[in-house]
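Readers of this paper often ask what the protein records in our data store actually look like. Such a record has a labelled line for the sequence and another for the backbone structure tokens. Nothing more is needed to write down the fold, since each code stands for a local backbone conformation. The record that follows is passed on verbatim for readers who wish to inspect the format.
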Amino acid sequence: MAPSPDPGLAPAGPPDAAPDPAAWTALQGAAVALSLPSVGGVRLTGPDRVAFLQGNVSADVAALGEGDAATTLFLDPKGRPEAQASVHRRRDDLHLAVEDDAAGFVLDRLHRQRIFDDVAFDDLRTVLRTWTVQGPTAADVVAEAFGAHAPEGGTAQVPFASADVLLVAHARTAPGGVDVHALARDADAVEAALRAAGAAWGDAATLEASRIEARRARAGREGLGVLPHEADLDRYVSTTKGCYVGQETIARLDARANVRRHLVRLRLDAPVGAGPLTLALDGKRVGVVGGRAQHPDLGPVALAVLKDDARDAPLEVRDGDGAVRTGARVG
């Protein structure tokens, strides 16, 4: 994946299909599990791995202890997110779980940035797979399946099947949950263990509807072409660490505090399907639409980055050709 070529257009997303009713019910009261094929693994080894990654991402990697985890952003020189990942610090390596099919882009970027650094990169996209378990009982289901809890802000690595599984707390939905990283060859065993522990099997539409309900932005869906503060992604940016790509812009933004666009949830008049979408008011572009979904209770919804002075107005949702697709309002 490459960053969006148009700072005003989000990438095309999945169609806004309705969640499976059984999966939605389980997410609200128990736990659902599903595979995340868009999450790709990258491994960093070598004595310079921490210092190298520290200069390439927004999180304070150097402050992480062994077994700690953090969500981080890869920013461009202008401070705009290009990718999002979870970084897991282990004794002998750093593991990145990169969101939204951006692992290839991240690998290319890391290779370009390496000059004299003693660091190596491994592409784990065909070796590892990622599942997520979300819902009020997700932590208990994962503990039952694998014999360990994932601590908040940390990881648990436990033996399972032919190797280990890595468990990481990750709130992808309103109820929250846990991500499970395991070898691809152990996929059948992982899924059997989760089902035996009581997880219902979910679908991507359920995950996306709950993510939008909870206003949980992700760089690859709402953050491309905007600044982290505009997409509610600044929580993943350290304000105390040293130099990193994009820091100059972030420091100026923090100092001036003049953010004039923010993340909002939209109620749409009708489903809009896949494709890049913008928001217009009186014929002028005032925002960009990211993820969209068919929510069981709220109807068609989406997340967007919108100018503050347009929050209370009726909006037009337009496609890449400028045609009006439907109306929208913040809510």
